[in-house]
Amino acid sequence: MPTTAAGSTGTTATDTATRLREAAYALFEQQGYAATTVDQIAAEAGVGRTTFFRVFGSKEDVIFPDHEALAARVAARLDTLGDDPGAAPLGATEAARIVLEHYLAEGDLARARYRLTASVPTLRDREVSSTAGYRRRFRDALRGWTGEEPGDDLRAEVVAGSIVTAHNHVLRRWLRGAVDDDGARRELDRALGLVLASVAATGRSGGADQVPPDDGRPGDGRPGTPAGGSTVVVLRSGASLEEVLPELQAALARVEVRVEA
Amino acid sequence: MPTTAAGSTGTTATDTATRLREAAYALFEQQGYAATTVDQIAAEAGVGRTTFFRVFGSKEDVIFPDHEALAARVAARLDTLGDDPGAAPLGATEAARIVLEHYLAEGDLARARYRLTASVPTLRDREVSSTAGYRRRFRDALRGWTGEEPGDDLRAEVVAGSIVTAHNHVLRRWLRGAVDDDGARRELDRALGLVLASVAATGRSGGADQVPPDDGRPGDGRPGTPAGGSTVVVLRSGASLEEVLPELQAALARVEVRVEA
DNA sequence: GAGCGTACGGTACTGAGTACCGCTCTCGAT
DNA sequence: ATCGAGAGCGGTACTCAGTACCGTACGCTC
């Protein structure tokens, strides 16, 4: 118990974690990740090696945010989707924004982490594999939306992966300094709009199934607000609706689509 | 297996590697991954511990295929795309098939690996991060297709991720025994068709840009031959019909389209 | 003050991964 | 046949991450 002011308790644990993290980042940037030992980090933070492993489970954990907790918050938001299919795009967008906002709040810490992960292969791998938890949560939430079964949920997996990819794309641009905070928020909306638009009608796998007739929300961050007018397209074809729908939807991107028979 | 080592020397090296791999898999299935030490594997294979680390760089490497070599083959196929945008879907499908065929050829070995990765978190992470190389290769190849720049290639990233996701979805179904070899090949065609169809028209980033009017190839591995019927699609949108019509027709290429008001 | 939970430090151990040295067998040249 | 030369292999010794266990100091409650 060295040098801790006698009055304050409770915040001690947090302080220890913070000191360890700061010491770790400083040493990593200075000597490199591999060349820095846990002993050095602990010594620099003024604690024992045991304490390091008690606070962070491993040398890698001191770098990364608590993805499990973050993914749990994402899942919680996704759970509020209920059975209303029209709420899915908005809900997914908000869920993704939870993650983005977390990084924005971290600020320079997130940037320092990016510098590390960009240069150390081990850490990059760790970061990549950390996306699996998010993909899984989005996939599970999206299954109700695609009407697929757990073993056979290609669409849900693809869309979930696309959401995560779109988020990470924007996040990386922010990490590199290509956009500022608000720019990142706007780009996330735009990117997810692009990704989710191509799914809106893909929806249910059953050929004649219902597609959300109208999501009712005007412009959830989508680009152009449509202004009425309707068009009827008659497809005469041997191709089933299911087959042409993805292409059709993609072609119409940001246009609301309703399918009748 | 994808050991590109020119066999100038005897078959000794390959034999040692094979013995080590078989010993490792046997011990892993019997005692579990964590409980098996490299010493045990080496002893079981009748070689020294040093030899193990000379042949496989790490304990994990003995399990996984040479993803780098495999991804290089994928990249080689992708390089033959040239500038013809119509060739992209076919080329991407064939590139993905290279990977699938590799696993199919592995047979039981791939299944044994799947059993391991499904139960050991460390190995699952490794497997997840190994997909990054494939995604990167597809993304780079697709950039010519989407007309995007390296720092700002959202579409290419999303499509690349979707291709890998679709492939892994089918692969996992095969690994679980849900489909046989030919079934997996067919499902890969179908899954990639679904994924790539939604991109065909998304193509170039410019909104009103030209999309390949017709790729001319009938059924590049697309699923079933359709059987007649017509479909009515109602578009409710602020976008004028003239705006969407070119894309729409391109998307439907092989489908007769009639537009009514 | 006695008991109790918590946070911490220290010691000792396992096992992966690395560096280095030395052995042996084979091949080709002289 | 002899002599390197090089490849493949084994052994030793070391570093360091991660785990298990024990002991201790502090604050809190009864």
From TrEMBL, chains A, B:
PANTHER family assigned to the protein according to its UniProt record, in alphabetical order: HTH-TYPE TRANSCRIPTIONAL REGULATOR BETI (PTHR30055:SF234), HTH-TYPE TRANSCRIPTIONAL REGULATOR RUTR (PTHR30055)
Species per Swiss-Prot/TrEMBL record: freshwater metagenome
Region of interest (Disordered), ranges: 203-231
Keywords per UniProt: DNA-binding, Transcription, Transcription regulation
Domain HTH tetR-type: 14-74
SUPFAM superfamilies, per the entry: Homeodomain-like
GO terms for MF: DNA-binding transcription factor activity; transcription cis-regulatory region binding
Protein name, entry field: Unannotated protein
Top-level taxonomy: unclassified sequences, metagenomes, ecological metagenomes
